[in-house]
Design a protein that fits this description.
heterodimer; A: alpha/beta; 6 helices; disordered N terminus; B: mainly alpha; 18 helices; about 5% strand
Chain lengths: ~250, ~400
């Protein structure tokens, strides 16, 4: 009897994500007034997705894995190209960059990362909204921008939007999974194994406004194989303005 | 949540250190007077071996790409080439070839060498090292970490330590669930963390010893390594004294310290240095020459640390060692004017005056002098000095504000 109960508890914890209560947090937002139809047959500049894959040891240390990272990078890029075509937009890869151009992109990349962090912390967690983002009845409004300097980004002249993608995966090692099982069965303590975080954001290259963003801390799909990457990219682009529902 | 802090933080966490399950790991006896024999240099380009090292290198390669395009980088080709040259002088041509040097604009002193051969030097180091030999001592130390693959060993140790603790925490909860109360988990945690930091300190000791070995077999003066630590301690001493704080403890080893105490490092470095090499060249002149174009900016960055005692010490140490120059007098004037007590303004006026005497075209010195005079109530000379500033620098960003100041009646 006791044993059955333990298994039931285990099933409960393993079956659901441990990361955080799903209801407390939003995952995606679109700028108010941004119309879906405006995004058909637009040109989207895609900067090289930032992708990291590693394994998580029993103690939680993440060991970077070069082979997985390489595979995931290729898989995500081809999944991206495939799905963008379905979305009816032209995807332009960012040009090879040198010197000042490279520095400018590096700076905007870092700026977008900082804004994405803020959006995740202060926009997607409803109770955290900042006073400056709430005044003037703007509470429910998604209003974030990188500024008009984005116009000077290399390649910006030939595109309407820029898509930034970040993906960080740590797969639970055998040791981590074993510990997870012992923790829940023996000690009754729930424990996560693996972490799969990522975000994608679309920026208007004329105004610098973030028109859409999606972020998740426990995404599905194994980026190490092509099919898994397709699933991951679909999750990443969930709610993408203009996406066909069965995309 | 999705942390976007991608670059330097990752490196810092990996450049952290190791566990001590392996008490057999490379440890240098702190009391030795013999430097270790140098390892043979690599034949050709080294390639990482094994999953862990290949993974670390890939992240490191990526971090280097970001660094190369980073706004934090000091784009100074000549100075960067000079750093590489000093590294080669220290560790030898066959070792230094594959290394890429980068100067990070940061007023603190630090340097690091990551697994793939990226050398990062923080710009604050240039104000603390006084010659090629001292710079070489720091670079040789970092190269020692690199040659011994310390990052990899530290990473593996950290990982096993964390896993050990994770297992222990789960098992101790289980034990208490079964009514066994006297878990030794807390003691174990102290042991593991203590050992990890102890291992860090031993890695640093080993790198110190290797660094001095390089200097011993180079044409530079190995005694400079100990000298560098003396400068660093003196600066901290002055900084604390001006703030009215207790003299820093340069001997004690704090539980979480990942470096040995400065005084120990100075003593060890002094003991390991080859006595017969004490009369070798320091390379002071070449060092000063390479640094000269960047000195004003480096001093300006240092001023912004708002560390009066430490900064005043550094400026004086440079002035005493290499002679007082206009940029040094100017920086000292700024330091005193920015603290801004009436007595400081009097000193600042004096320093700016000396800077102008050495370099009558130094526009910013007229600005500082004029502002210090204005705040001291010397309105007429202040107007004259500030006008001179605008003549020398009509396009200055604060030209409009200074012009207003000249026209105002001055009695606030």
């Amino acid at each position: 009897m006791n044993r059955t109960f333990a298994w039931a508890v285990a099933a409960l914890f393993f079956g659901t994500s441990m990361a955080m209560p799903a209801t407390a947090q939003e995952r995606s937002a679109v700028k108010q007034g941004f119309e879906i139809s405006r995004l058909t047959s637009k040109r989207i500049l895609v900067f090289a997705p930032e992708v990291h894959v590693g394994s998580q040891s029993a103690g939680g240390t993440v060991t970077p894995n070069a082979d997985w990272t390489e595979r995931a990078r290729n898989n995500i890029q081809s999944a991206l190209a495939q799905q963008q075509q379905q979305l009816g937009n032209a995807v332009i890869a960012a040009p090879e960059l040198y010197n000042d151009d490279a520095r400018r992109v590096e700076e905007y990349d870092a700026l977008f990362a900082a804004i994405a962090d803020s959006v995740i912390e202060y926009q997607f967690v409803k109770g955290n909204r900042l006073p400056t983002k709430k005044y003037d009845n703007k509470e429910g409004v998604f209003d974030w921008s990188l500024g008009q300097g984005v116009r000077d980004l290399p390649g910006a002249k030939d595109a309407d939007y820029a898509l930034f993608i970040f993906d960080d995966d740590a797969y639970g090692s055998t040791g981590r999974k074993l510990l997870q099982a012992v923790a829940i069965l023996g000690a009754g303590v729930p424990m996560t194994s693996g972490s799969h975080r990522g975000y994608a954001g679309l920026v208007d290259l004329h105004s610098g406004d973030v028109v859409w963003m999606n972020a998740d801390s426990q995404m599905g799909g194994d980026v190490r194989d092509p099919d898994g990457a397709v699933k991951r990219v679909r999750e990443m682009l969930a709610g993408f303005p203009g996406a066909r529902t069965n995309g | 949540m999705a942390k976007a802090c991608k670059r330097p933080t990752w490196f810092a966490s990996v450049a952290l250190p190791v566990l001590a399950l392996a008490a057999s790991s490379p440890v240098v006896a702190a009391r030795t007077t013999i430097t270790p024999p140098l390892a043979p240099p690599y034949a050709g380009a080294y390639q990482p071996v094994g999953k862990d090292e290949i993974g670390l290198w890939q992240r490191d390669d990526e971090a280097e790409k970001h660094l190369a395009a980073s706004a934090q980088l000091l784009v100074a080709p000549a100075l960067t080439a000079y750093v590489h040259h000093v590294l080669c002088e220290t560790v030898g041509e066959d070792r230094c070839k594959g290394v890429r040097a980068y100067i990070v604009r940061d007023p603190m002193y630090n340097a690091s060498m990551s697994p793939n051969g990226t050398l990062r030097v923080w710009s604050g180091l240039f104000l603390r090292a006084h010659n090629e030999a001292e710079l070489g001592a720091v670079l040789g130390h970092e190269f020692g970490h690199f040659e011994k693959r310390h990052t990899l060993a530290a990473f593996k140790g950290e990982r096993s330590g964390q896993s050990l603790l994770a297992w222990a925490s789960v098992l101790s909860i289980m034990a208490s669930n079964y009514g066994y109360r006297d878990s030794h988990f807390d003691q174990m945690r102290v042991d593991v963390y203590g050992n990890l930091r102890h291992f860090d300190r031993d890695q640093e000791r080993e790198a110190d010893a290797i660094g001095v070995s390089y200097l011993n077999s180079s044409s530079l003066r190995p005694q400079a390594a100990a000298q560098f630590w003396q400068t660093v301690m003196a600066e901290q001493d002055r900084s604390a004294a001006v703030r009215g704080l207790k003299r820093p403890d340069f001997r004690g080893v704090a539980f979480f310290a990942d470096h040995p105490p400065d005084e120990e490092r100075a003593e060890t470095d002094a003991r390991l240095a080859l006595p017969s090499a004490a009369n070798r060249e320091d390379g002071t002149a070449a060092y000063r020459q390479a640094l000269a174009p960047w000195l004003p900016q480096l001093l300006n960055d240092q001023l912004k640390l708002n560390d009066f005692g430490g900064t005043d010490y550094l400026i004086q140490a440079m002035g005493d060692a290499d002679g007082w120059s206009a940029p040094l007098y100017f920086a000292r004037g700024e330091l005193y004017r920015l603290r801004g007590n009436p007595r400081d303004l009097t000193s600042a006026i004096d320093f700016y005056g000396q800077a102008i005497a050495l370099d009558p075209k130094l526009a910013d010195a007229y600005r500082g002098l004029g502002l210090a005079q204005m705040r001291s109530g010397l309105v007429a000379p202040a107007r004259e000095t500030l006008s001179r500033y605008l003549v020398l620098q009509p396009q200055a960003r604060d030209a409009a504000m200074i012009a207003t100041l000249i026209q105002s009646d001055g009695d606030r």
